[in-house]
Design brief:
150 residues; alpha+beta; seven-stranded mixed sheet; 4 helices; globular
Length: 150
Amino acid sequence: MIIRKARMCDVEEVHALITHYADRGLMLARSRSMLYEGIREISIAEDRGKLVGTGMLHIIWEDLAEIRSIAVHKDFQKSGIGRMLVNAFLCEARELKIPRVFALTYQAGFFAKCSFRVVPKESLSQKVWKECINCPKFPNCDEEAVVIDL
């Protein structure tokens, strides 16, 4: 199992994996356009050449980053891939000297196992909300906010 940065040729598989869970209401959808534009944010979990998981680290500001769209193929659930992706993003944030990472999620329990804590969404910086305006659930967000200080 390796974690690597995404390549352009990965976008269709990443889109399909995220859409699989988004269609079930388990995460927010991501457009192909957003994935192509944000390719440098995306990391891939790969097992013997097969994409089995994905996620993104999105930089918000000098002191804040967001983990987005963690998705693991259903055949590889409960095998530690999600945690591996989160750890890779936390390492990347540390390398960039970003002291705080958050996620907006329907899976707060998973993030709690990765040492994040649940916080009120309102406690997050206003900079977090600039992209929420484009979300179909805005302004009635039903995700939970989780944070880790590095």
